[in-house]
Structures are given as C-alpha cells and as structure tokens.
Design goal:
It is a single-pass membrane protein. It is found in: Mitochondrion membrane. This is ATP synthase complex subunit 8. One of its GO terms (biological process) is proton motive force-driven ATP synthesis. By secondary structure, this protein is an all-alpha fold. It has a domain at about 1-30. It is built from 1 helix and no strands. The chain has one helix at about 5-30. The termini are far apart. The relative contact order is 0.06.
C-alpha cells in the first residue's frame, strides 16, 4: 500500500512546515491590529436586582 510509505509524505510535510514557519508566519505576524486595545479603565455596569412578579 503506497499510503503507508512515509518516505515522500514526510518530505512534503517537512517542506510545508518549513515554508509556513519561515515565510508565511513572519508576514502574518507583521500585520498591525486595526483596533488596538484602549488604555481606558473599564466601566462597571450598574446593576439592580430583578423584582419577580410572583414573590
């Protein structure tokens, strides 16, 4: 069965991971986020207790 022979598939897997790690990943990581996190302090919402009609 040729599917069980790891000889050609290991090289394909190694070459694809090498391509991803050395070429594609640095290009993806160089993008700047369009919405950087703000430095404002988060507001806590004011919550009121719910009044149940049957109590």
């Amino acid at each position: 069965m040729p599917q069980l022979n790891p000889n050609p598939w290991f090289f394909i897997m190694f070459a694809s991971w090498l391509t991803y790690s050395l070429i594609i990943q640095p290009k993806l990581l160089s993008f700047v986020s369009m919405n950087p996190p703000s430095s404002k302090a988060p507001k806590t919402p004011s919550t009121s207790p719910w009044t149940w009609p049957w109590t």
